């Protein structure tokens, strides 16, 4: 009995044994509901599975079909357009807001807190507010523009393809700017003010200080923040689902919403899974571009090569 | 994230305030716990040289515009929720104010729809998923960061990669699995699937906090004969309380806001969560009850907003810590 207990005690003292035991809850949940579905999703992409019926292997049939599918092509274009435009504007506005919040301001902590609000409330619910703001008959934006004499008739924000694209992008930017701003602000706060003092004593203008002090020191954080921002934007689902469900005429379908429509609403699990699988290479490419693209600039500017 | 633990310090010249010479572990602790507070106090720098009128145009005006745009949808949500229908649907008068505020929309929401059920479901699912995730994440983060078992580096890396897997490519196969486990249309389906995006995030956050706790404390306790479990419960956890709060707040808001899994795995009205219920059930045909819709959105957002307002600092330090690390 004594030896058995000490064997158990010794096992629990062994860091590897104990470490593996501690990993069990997390590993079990992640294996079953993350790793396994990731593999299953790829497999489903090569089958003709329907809801309630497991499918047969059909090779790359789903992918060849999707390759020729006009809607799929449009969705790919929309996703790339949405991600590129929204990410660039989010970066510009986010950086600007971060620089503003980094100034010496009254109620700074309070300002920072309320700026983050759009990011923390449920996106589906704030999207509903945007749906009402974009309403074709009672839109407050149309009302204001009409009163100011800018337009004559109410704008159909979500009823026309390009209007709808830009309206959804605007809503996405509204939600994403706080995240970019607050995380970049944290980066700005780690830059010592003595650099700015030195730079301004040397006669550097505001722009030069930003360009040669702020930007190089901020680049590593920008790379990480923008990588996440691109990831969130590329896989966005809620905003589009709530605002347009992909319409009008599929003009705002992203790959995520299209895969939902085909797999869950339409019942073709296999086809939907194929669309989701097709997102992966695009996603990896987007991450590579935003991460390494920005990282390399840091290296060119004299940062260490890690 | 792994890619640059302490990168900030190695990129630039040595920084006085945060002391890059103290090594990566300390860098992270500074980043996560105090978030550059010593520097923030005097960022005023040379600002006293900038004249007031110029400050008004370069700082206050743009900042005000930002705030108005960022907060307007909330104002609009709130004002619509209390506007009577005839004011909502008229183009006359001032739309930015309510003349005769009404509770009719709120009453309709609470008594004529399943909204209270949705709130209760969201609350149950959120609390359960949060606790499961925190429990699993504490053990995992302690094992990876402090026990440093063989292969822990790779496990840490794969946890980070798991965080990058977006729900929008997982929901289809997950739906198939949920169906097979006969969990379809139950709260359990959500309670079990939410940890897939919560655990990676919380584990990463907690690893950062655990890293900042000195090893000496643990060694002393080991010499005094404490077991690893005792060390975790009595030494590490009390010191990592801010990290636990951050992780808890994050897990809570992320699961409260979750949409795509809840939309896919739930079909009966009485098990729906607030975001899904509001989006799918409050619209009857072509008639949009904007008042109730906005009231639903408002009351669905309030719980996270209130929780957030109490723990802003923890939330922000969690967000920035996780990105910076």
What labels would you give this structure?
heterodimer; A: 306 residues; mainly alpha; MetI-like fold; globular; disordered C terminus; B: 325 residues; 3 domains; two-stranded antiparallel ribbon; disordered N terminus
CATH superfamily of the largest domain in chain B: MetI-like
Specify the helix fraction band of chain A: over 70%
As residue ranges, the low-confidence spans of chain A are 302-306
- Going by helix content, strand content and strand pairing, the class of chain B is mainly alpha
From the helix content, strand content and strand pairing of chain A, which structural class follows? mainly alpha
How much of the sequence lies in strands of chain A comes to: under 5%
Name of the CATH architecture of chain A: Orthogonal Bundle
Distance between the termini of chain A: 54 Å
Subunit organisation of the chains: heterodimer
Average pLDDT over all residues of chain A: 87
| Full CATH superfamily name of chain A | MetI-like
Q: From the alpha carbons, calculate the radius of gyration of chain A and give it in angstroms.
A: 25 Å
Main pleated-sheet profile of chain A: none
CATH domain class name of chain A = Mainly Alpha
Q: What's the total helix number of chain B? A: 18
Separation of the first and last Cα atoms of chain B:
5 Å
Proportion of β residues of chain B?
A: under 5%
Order of the strands making up the biggest sheet of chain B: 1-2
Can you tell me the CATH topology of chain A? MetI-like fold
Radius of gyration of chain B: 24 Å
Number of domains of chain A: 1
Short description:
Chain A contains 14 helices and no strands. With 306 residues, chain A is mostly helical. Chain A is globular, with a radius of gyration of 25 Å.
